Structure prediction request, 236 residues.
Amino acid sequence: MNAAAIAVKVVNLHKTYHVNGVLYPALRGVNLQVRRGEFLSIMGPSGSGKSTLLNLIGALDRPTGGKVYIDGVDVFRLKDDGLAEFRNRKIGFIFQSYNLVMRTSVLRNVELPLTISRVSPKNRMVRSMEVLWRVGLGDKARRKPSELSGGEQQRVAIARAVVNGPSIILGDEVTGNLDSKTGMEVISLLKSLNRDLNTTIILVTHDPMVAHATDRIVYLRDGVVQSEEVLRREAM
Prediction:
């Protein structure tokens, strides 16, 4: 695969945790390439290393060994300040529990990454409203997240994840708190963003319906890639 076509490259990635004085190897040498614009899902049993891998790709944690390249950048060679800036600019995150600030408005939640990026207040509002209308919540910008349904709250989280124009979106069990119908509506929204914006999306999921809506499934077991399943050939 052409290097310019690779959004994420994981090389011999290891992560070991110390738990009550015992070493616990969560990842044991993972290698993975994700094409730019690909919609990838990661599946595996509990304890297989799915969330650990996602956190390392998102630079939310540092590996015990190995490398992660995002758009060709060896992310763990960056200093902490540079890493935080790179993460805010390049990566959007979506979590199972939404991680919204309940005491403020939907609009303010979506603006948060732009505030960190020091975008002017006027431009923050314009860009945030554009994204909210795109996810179908433009008319609820002034409400608080607690006034919305679970599916709507996850749409707010998606809007927040994409407002900075990241090249990669990472999602950890994004449909886990939703019923199946609402969950698939959220996946449909992500597919449209993937298609229209050519945003690379990587989801950890336990739901086969969610996984089979993506381009490729990578199966983890015991901290290594066990197998993969290509669902759409254009993903390769």
Summary: The helical segments are 50-57, 80-90, 106-116, 121-134, 150-162, 180-197, 208-211. The mean pLDDT is 93. The longest strand covers residues 6-19.
